[in-house]
Amino acid sequence: MEKQKIMYDSGNELAAFAAKQINYHVMGYYPITPSTQIAENLDVMGAEGLHDIALIAAEGEHSAAGICYGASAAGGRVFNATSANGLLYALEQFPVQSGTRMPMVMNVACRTVSGPLCIKGDHSDVMYLLNTGWIILFADEPQKVYDFNLLGLKLAEAVRLPVAVAFDGFFTSHQKRKCLVFENDDTVTRYIGEKLSCDNPKVSAFAGTGTCGTAAELPYASVLDLAHPVSIGSYMNEPDVINNRYQLHLAMEAARNKLPELFTEYAALSGRELSLCGAYRHEDAEVLLFVLGSSYHTAMEAVDRLRQDGVAAGVITLYVLRPFPAKELRVLCHNAFTILVADRQDSYGAGGGNMSLELKAALSSLPHPPRILSRIYGLGGKDFFVEDALALFKEALSPDAPAFDYYGVTAGTEASDEETSGTSGRADPAMAVSAMQPQYFKPVTKEESTPGLTTCTFDPTTGEMKVSGGSVKDTTAMPMRVAPGHGACPGCGIPINVNLLLKGIEGNVVLLFQTGCGMVVTTGYPKTAFRVPFLHNLFQNGAATLSGVVEAFHQRQKRGEYPDGEITFVMVSGDGGMDIGMGSALGTALRGHKLIIFEYDNGGYMNTGYQLSYSTPLGAKSSTSHVGKTQYGKNFFHKDTPELMAATHIPYVATVAESNPTDFIRKAAKAAAYSREFGTAYIKALSACPLNWNDKPNLERSVIAAAVDCCYFPLYEIERGITALNYDPASSNKKIPVTEWLGMMGRTRHLLKEEYRSVAEEIQKEIDRRYARLRARAEHPLL
Q1: CATH of domain 439-622+633-779
Q2: Which pLDDT does position 422 carry in this prediction?
Q3: Which position among 251, 735, 771, 781 has the lowest Cβ density within 10 Å, counted as fewest Cβ atoms?
């Protein structure tokens, strides 16, 4: 045994620690709860110089998977972590990784797949990996997360397949346990060994020789091998594709044979026995409960209680989902009369979750297969207590138990006649997911929302939209479309900015929110803060979704299915939504759908705990851009989204700030007019986040004003391609150095220190350059 030390850490922390000890070349990642802590912890260690991993924050999980694939094709050791819809967003990349036989390790902190949106843990995400050609290891405790991350890489490189290490989100991922880790990183380095690559001089003699051997004996092809160029990912027809898949099948079978050898080797190194399956008091068990993950430990306690009552109960679990250990399961289950398989996901319409279906298939060859019952439990992170395990055993012991059912469902309530009138009835929870929610607020009518406070008239001779009215005092008559009953943090800029926007938009409004704080704090089921129609879709697809709403609206009006009249359609994005959702937004703008894209830019992925986004200022601290011996915060400049949107040549682009409310309201009115008449309009507001900016909630308006006055966030508009500067702090003698603004926030205050002077100077130089270009465009008649 190698020397080890005790750590008291969670599964996420131990996954990061294992990655640090391995010292991967590259981690491509995108933050998503509950796996985000893995990248965060690696960033902390990286800031202290404890590893050399290149941590690349992609703009979405699909790109993160692409980064990993590219890095592995370049001969690098590669790491990733994701959850839920992030895994699904990247799904098409996973067969590419396995089909070209590129090894890597990806951690999956299992979480509910949306919709509706839920961030808690179940297994509905990892089951999508079953048919991707990835090896899947499942850890039931933090210790195995660490062990499987080490063993997983060695297995991946031995059989040339990628490996996923899965574990329960918010249970195994976040709960701390006493664990053992190797004290010296050298132990891990020696255990993993050196990766053979054709571009490595140490193994270049292998390249191009045509020598056959086992996968482990042959060097990895690399796109960096300039002496022996290779093409990775060729176009194939039959019979090559079926041969490729057959080779992948053989690789999976090689993994099946390799695992016992690796388990033995790892036991000698660590003193910990690993296996394909786990079983407790199964030898003479007549009734077995099958569960995955952390529920296994809860079920063991239930087994002990039942044994005291004379019930021959046992519990089994899997540590390896792919390759599926059917042979081993047949040995474990051959004495049981009944097995109840509890799945934290449903394969809808199949009569059971994936593990139910696979266990039935595996045991069907037994001379007398046991009765197998399927139960769906624990969805959305619903807790699993010993009492729940006992209840499942009770069902398994009943001869009349149905073959398939859900466990732990809460019955809905019957809707009253009053509730079902109009659009507010709710007969059961399923209906409540749709439009049939109880009506908590009186809807805002068109008459109420059209007080005539702003008037927009398009002048075809000048190509400008003329706005009259729009003073802050007058717009107090505009009804609130977002009610005060939201859960935003004190000082949060989101409700302020959304309500300022809507004060300038008269008439009917339909809102779409991408995932983010703005959506989460206003729509906690079963209540809503919205007095107008609201739709949610995920970060990456909000604009496309709203464009579908817009086109259906116009088509239904055209066909006489919907009343005549105008609606202003607004997509609200923020919390990094214009990173992962940039492609969807650009596509929508290029198509020119008649809607507004409104971005509240709070400078980070705030809803997942403030990881850096592409709009985070250079040098700012975040949970994925720490300040330490080797880094000073975020290391690249903020994204200029208005200029990107302007490049699509949409009719109207504008920036707004709560510190200049009249300008804000008038631009909102102008954007609404353009969106109804001409096509897509885009507005961006700088939105305060006291919690993560680390400043005072009651001072946020002054912080926003300082961002405007230092020209970090200039106020301007681009109307039909012509730029107008709406506020010039220099000409008003209000221009301040950027350090004055940076010093107002804890996330950037460190940049005022002498050791970071060069970073602050670089920020000032870039802000001045961008602003000079903006002023020059505003002074030019064609720009």
Answers
A1: 3.40.50.970
A2: 36
A3: 781
